[in-house]
Known about the structure:
Strand content of chain A: 15-25%
InterPro entries (chain B): ABC_transp_permease, BCAA_transport_permease
Structural class of chain A: alpha/beta
Largest interface: A-B, 26 and 21 residues
Mean pLDDT of chain A: 90
Structural class of chain B: mainly alpha
Protein name (chain B): Branched-chain amino acid ABC transporter permease LivH
Shape of chain B: globular
Number of strands of chain B: 4
Number of domains of chain B: 1
Family (chain B): Belongs to the binding-protein-dependent transport system permease family. LivHM subfamily.
Order of helices and strands of chain A: EEEHEEHEHHHHEHEHEEHH
Low-confidence stretches of chain B: none
Shape of chain A: globular
Order of helices and strands of chain B: HHHHEEEHHHHEHHH
Distance between the termini of chain B: 51 Å
Oligomer: heterodimer
Number of strands of chain A: 10
Helix content of chain A: 25-40%
Strand order of the largest sheet of chain A: 6-7-8-3-9-10
Helix content of chain B: over 70%
Number of helices of chain A: 10
Strand order of the largest sheet of chain B: 1-4
Membrane topology (chain B): Multi-pass membrane protein
Subcellular location (chain B): Cell membrane
Low-confidence stretches of chain A: 1-8
Amino acid sequence: MSDIIPAARDSASAMLSVRGVKTFYGNIMALKGVDVDVHKGEIVTLIGSNGAGKSTLMMTIFGQPRAREGAILFEGRDITKMPTHEIAQLKIAQSPEGRRIFPRMTVFENLQMGASIDGFAHFDGDLERVFAMFPRLKERINQRGGTLSGGEQQMLAIGRALMSRPRLLMLDEPSLGLAPLIVRQIFDAIRELNRTEGLTVFLVEQNAFHALKLAHRGYVMVNGVVTMSGEGRELLERPEVRAAYLEGGRH
Amino acid sequence: MDIFVQQLINGLTLGSIYGLIAIGYTMVFGIIGMVNFAHGDVFMVSAFIALICFLLVTTVFGITSIFLALAIVLVVAMFFTSLTNWAIERVAYRPLRGSFRLAPMISAIGMSILLSNFVQVAQGPRNKPVPPMVTDVIVLMENDGYQVTLAWKQIIIMVLTAVLLGGFWYLVQKTSLGRAQRAVEQDRKMAALLGINVDHTISLTFVIGAALAAVAGVMYLMYYGVANFADGFVPGVKAFTAAVLGGIGSLPGAVLGGLLIGLIEVFWSAYFSIEYKDVAAFSILAITLIFLPQGLLGRPEVEKV
């Protein structure tokens, strides 16, 4: 915990602010007091090994499961106890762990599900944008989600999250199951959306090298605790980070 | 041949009623994985609502057009039955969500007993008759004095069922409400993550299921002319059987299963023995489940992840 550097800006101005959050599965404490800030217009990544609690944090932000202690603020508003669907309606979108594509809906219907928060006002344009990013989805538009390959499902999960025109986009391991070339495409697309539209992104990754290169800031999580934080490129240079997450793993 | 055609008509009529009830079972099972044992009694309650409403409309308000009366009865029965089922879900099932799997089912058995006993106390244990509503028949064939007839009420039942199922299919497949319903069925947590109010969607499922059961209740009352507090049980079990036969969770399966159970029952009664018609229907269910455990149109459990 000693290694945490103060956030660049104070937490009051953060878009998403996670304060001392503890989450339990039964009696097992999965998050042991986590502090994370995401500022508007930033790409922030959370890296860590399997089982560190990254996905638990992503889901805790949506109240699934609820944080037992601590607070989660979105634009200054306490959302710790808000129902999950109301949190989503604040225009926070997540491409969750395991993708969670609706298996018996077509690709098109899955994307429609994403757009329902936005009220379909920009549906056609957003659909074109997603298809431009992932042409494969356009080829599979009438195929059922459950019959897609893992990589295609990953694209669909990201596309579905984008269809809601999120103010905060949360991506849980978008590189999982994807070929390196497509990973690069996705990361380029995220960078592009961030640069041109100011999209705020909170990215969980095991693929630390790409994630830290992409992100403005990063957090390292170990066993339910944030152990390091700093600017993405700076974290990349740290020997501890290199030893734990990067050696032998420059995909 | 004459008997065959006649029984086919009778079977499809009965099957339509079963199918309408079966959808309620299959939808609720699909969305919260629970067998709603009270659904048959909700159907019975709707028949009583229809009965009371019909008598009010024809005697107190003096409406003589039978079709107008039926239309009013249908709307009123759908409304109050939906309200009843909505309240049941709110009171008896929702508080148990997240509890162990059997809890809401036990609660449903309780609601089933409550509904039938309430009607027994409030309306009496005897059959309650209504005056015959639609009595005209069309003679299709006549052979050696045996007439094959198609009653108007049978036409009403089949046509109304077909129209309703068409509308229902459209609702589920093409509207955002239906999409939300399917999303909650397939992945409740993800649906919430996309801003869907899961509780509302589940309530809506109960409302839709009850509305269809109410139509079945009105049709049942019109067809048989009587309602009884115990009428929820056997048609309810048959409709549940239909849902399982068609593949529980599958909407087309529920309709197909309903028609099949209706046909099996009627043909067995005509050609073999009427006493064993229920045995026949349930035996075919048992045989189907041995060789096709997921039902006729149900999906196998394996799903690519």
